[in-house]
Amino acid sequence: MRTRDPLENTELTFLLGMAFQLVLSEFVSRVDAAGHAELRPVHGLVFQALRGAGATSSELAERLGVTKQAAGQIIDDLEKRGYVERRPHPAGGRRKLVVLTGRAQEHLSVAGRILHELEGQLGKQLQDVGLDVPRAELAAIIRSLAGDAIPPLRPVW
């Protein structure tokens, strides 16, 4: 007689949340072990939001869905740690452009490598039991709820 999986009838929101927490926890553990224990997932979201040309603190607040004050505090902290720097805005005026430093770029490189390794391992484990990473299914859920206006991932956890 086959025992029933207790997750079989669990609500979708709980399953998505549990999966996210478990993957994120494993990712953070591996990033910590790689020498980046001082950073948390919110910092990675900040780095993603600042990739390329950078952003003003107001733009960062909007991208992260946080207050300008919260964005300013994150920027101050990351600047003290050497991950971002403020530069004069190319358009002039009093605004400052917040950009990533080489230290942040190194973190992004390490985190990206770890994320791809983790995803590969999960894919292999699922493949061993006849499944695939449910990328298409998750994308379909996102599209059905958001349409073409795909929202950014924001630090709400």
Unreliable spans: none
Question: How are helices and strands ordered from N to C?
Answer: HHHHEEHH
The biggest beta sheet reads: 2 strands, antiparallel
**What would the principal axes of the Cα set say about the shape?**
elongated
| CATH homologous superfamily identity of the domain at 37-145 | Winged helix-like DNA-binding domain superfamily/Winged helix DNA-binding domain
What would you call the structural class? mainly alpha
Helix content: 55-70%
Tell me, rounded to a whole number, the average pLDDT. Answer: 92
Cα end-to-end separation: 39 Å
Count of helical stretches: 6
Instruction: Let me know the number of strands.
Output: 2
- CATH first level of the domain at 37-145: which class? Mainly Alpha
Radius of gyration: 19 Å
CATH topology of the domain at 37-145: Arc Repressor Mutant, subunit A
- Under the CATH scheme, which architecture of the domain at 37-145 would be assigned? Orthogonal Bundle
- The fraction of residues assigned to DSSP E strands is 5-15%
What's the arrangement of secondary structure elements?
Blueprint lengths: L11 H25 L4 H10 L6 H8 L3 H14 L2 E5 L7 E5 L1 H27 L6 H12 L11
Antiparallel strand pairs: 1-2
Helix pairs in contact: 1-5, 3-4
Structure description:
There is one protein chain. By secondary structure, the chain is mostly helical. Helices cover 61% and strands 6% of the residues. A hairpin with a 7-residue loop joins strand 1 (84-88) and strand 2 (96-100). It is elongated and about 70 Å long. The N and C termini lie far apart (39 Å).
